[in-house]
Write a structure and sequence with these properties.
The protein is of the alpha/beta class and 390 residues long. It has three domains: 5-123, Response regulator (Rossmann fold, 3-Layer(aba) Sandwich); 132-273, Toll/interleukin-1 receptor homology (TIR) domain (Rossmann fold), CATH 3.40.50; 294-387, no CATH class. The chain has helices spanning 15-30, 46-49, 71-79, 92-95, 113-123, 139-155, 163-166, 173-182, 199-210, 258-293, 327-340, 358-370, 383-387, and strands spanning 5-11, 38-42, 56-61, 83-88, 106-107, 132-136, 159-161, 186-191, 214-219, 235-239, 299-300, 306-309, 315-320, 346-351, 375-379. The strands form three sheets. It has a five-stranded parallel β-sheet with strand order 2-1-3-4-5, sandwiched between helices. Helix 1 crosses helix 5 (113-123). The radius of gyration is 23 Å and the shape is flat. InterPro entries: TIR_dom, Toll_tir_struct_dom_sf.
């Protein structure tokens, strides 16, 4: 298989280097992509193996003794515009060389492992760069924890939806809520004893299942998961205990201890890739099955995109797009077009339009009519009509 994504490792030869590489390979398996999809290139092999015309991302492993290595290669990559993520252990100022002082860095810890690997996947457009979380809860039972999670996840650079904080005045409440759920990566569901007694909470749970959105489910100490709670296709339950709460009351005024908040953030980060893979697979399967019914031959590529070579000589790439297509989706499409080696090709970003607000669908249609002719969006309800074209 031809390598398409280059991960360059710079700096100290520490054990964390292999830990991160192993985690990236596991994430690729979770995404159902070949492990060799990303080629790891040490600094010593740059001259022989690095290809300037293929996507690259670098990790610089710092040194607690300030014994910095690979500075010439690092400077060359910076001049080439390659993104470099410094990883430090004690102090950024002492562990990382000055040439990288303007780069955002991450302090290594086991809790940050998924975050580091997700940054790599996002850089290669294998995981979307938007990091959206939806908090589902019952106000009468868990407001304190909901707000606490909102603030903690926001501080961790997630775009968090919380009904009391995220809907502007004058917007149709329920339409916007479904819209934001459709566009999220993960749902954090606060499963309190009365959660499913609320009509709207039950609707949110059913909607998450229907769209196969991953759920990190926090189960209150005085509550057990019922059969209906286990029906989620991608549900990751965390059973809370009395000691996980600061006041040990676990009512709407109580909050979680800091260590549990950290555990939840780690789980949310971990679930993102698994959830993306499931939703991509679902969209790919539906489109491919409908294509077969209409005698259209589409091929699923290892990159988890579909290609079609029409009898007319036209080449089409179909890219499954999770959530709501944006301009960044078009940029990602351009990269995939180059990697596939096509010169003349049209691209369709296929997506599930269920619960997306009309005003946004109208905006996407306007973009289709007024911008690039070779990159357009194609919503699920129009798959049949598109595939029936001669």
């Amino acid at each position: 298989m031809k390598y398409k994504y280059q991960l360059i490792t710079l700096g100290s030869d520490v054990r964390e280097r292999q830990i991160i590489i192993n985690q990236i390979r596991e994430d690729l398996r979770n995404l159902k992509l070949p492990e060799e999809f990303i080629k790891v290139i040490p600094a010593s092999s740059i001259e022989d193996e690095y290809k300037g015309n293929q996507p690259a991302f670098a990790l610089y492993f710092g040194d607690t003794s300030s014994d910095f290595k690979d500075l010439d290669v690092t400077q060359k990559l910076l001049k080439d515009g390659t993104m470099i993520l410094p990883i430090f252990y004690d102090s950024f100022e002492t562990d990382i060389p000055r040439v990288l002082e303007n780069q955002n860095a991450i302090k290594y810890s086991e809790n940050e492992l998924n975050r580091i690997t997700n940054v790599v996947l996002e850089a290669f457009e294998l995981l979307r760069s938007t990091r959206k979380v939806f908090i589902s809860y019952r106000r009468a039972e868990s407001t304190g924890v909901a707000i606490q999670l909102y603030e903690a996840l926001e501080a961790y650079n997630f775009d968090v939806f919380l009904d009391t904080h995220s809907i502007q005045k004058g917007e149709p409440f329920q339409d916007e809520l479904w819209h934001r759920m459709t566009d999220c990566d993960v749902i954090v569901l606060l499963n309190t004893p009365g959660f499913l007694e609320s009509h709207w909470c039950k609707e949110e749970f059913a909607e998450a299942n229907a769209k196969q959105i991953g759920i990190v489910q926090l189960v209150w100490p005085n509550h057990q998961i019922k059969d209906i709670d286990k029906s989620s296709y991608l549900c990751y339950p965390i059973q809370l205990s009395e000691n996980d709460f600061t006041k040990k009351k676990y009512d709407k005024t109580d909050q979680l201890v800091e260590s549990m908040i950290e555990n939840i953030i780690v789980e949310v980060e971990s679930v993102r890739a698994r959830n993306l893979a499931a939703r991509q697979d679902n969209l790919i399967t539906e489109f491919r099955n409908m294509a077969e019914k209409n005698n259209r031959i589409v091929t699923v590529q290892p990159e988890k995109i579909l290609t079609e070579d029409r009898p007319t000589g036209e080449h089409i790439i179909y890219i499954p797009t999770i959530g709501i297509p944006r301009s960044t989706s078009c940029q990602s499409a351009e990269i995939k077009k180059e990697l596939m080696g096509y010169d003349e090709v049209s691209i369709r970003l296929i997506y599930d339009d269920l619960r997306i607000r009309d005003k946004w669908l109208q905006h996407l249609e306007w973009l289709n009519d007024n911008f690039k002719k070779d990159i357009k969006t194609l919503k699920k309800q129009e798959f049949q009509g598109w595939l029936q074209k001669s």
